[in-house]
Prior knowledge:
Elements: E1 2-4, H1 6-19, H2 38-56, E2 65-66, E3 79-82, E4 88-91, E5 98-106, E6 117-118, H3 122-126, E7 140-143, E8 153-156, E9 173-180, E10 191-193, H4 198-212, H5 216-226
Parallel strand pairs: 6-7
Antiparallel strand pairs: 1-10, 2-9, 3-4, 4-8, 5-9, 7-8
Amino acid sequence: MVTLTPATAISLVRKNLDEAGLNESVMYTDENNDNLSFDDLVKKNLPEAINITHLAAPVWLLEGNQYQFSANTRPEGETCEILPDGVLRFSPSKASNFLRLVAFRAADSGIVVTDALNEASPEGRKQLNPVIRGRHDRPRLVRSQGEISPPRFSYYTLKESSYGSGTDARGMIAVFSFVSEQTYSPQATGYDISRALRQNIIDQLTAMVLATYKDQTLQQYFQSRANSFAE
Length: 231
């Protein structure tokens, strides 16, 4: 991932507006004549624009951070265990600020999973049946209903030869990467983004700024651009 600074975001939003023939200086007051700081507006909306774009983008455009389970301590919310039937159940720490899964792979499988089934969905409920549930050669990942922060996942399933008494569950996770939620801070010097989504994020941010200033036509234009992802 790369860092997008507030200063860069402000510069790129201004560039968008200039290219659209709109000078942001005319937008410093709203319809109630309240003074608005353009720079502050961009800064405050930047994390939300990043999160919206990361949630909407195709998974192949996402970059994530590899999560490392703690060796000796257990941060709040973190779990990692193998159930008797070979289901691998885990969750990252609450501090990881999980937003969206990028990739998961168990150590005994060569297959990468990039999406998680909802526990209450028909496919999710199928995993409760040991005959038709996922296996190491066609694995399924299920996200528990109601577990939001942090989320809890169940992986179906490990090879029988991969688990047993004394097996370290952490060692059975080869890849677990995800995008973290970004939160606004006045002191923030930058936010993590997937590099392929930089322009989409700037267009989303531009649309959000224009929504504040009630410019519906240009807002829709930039929103459309924000939702157009590279193939």
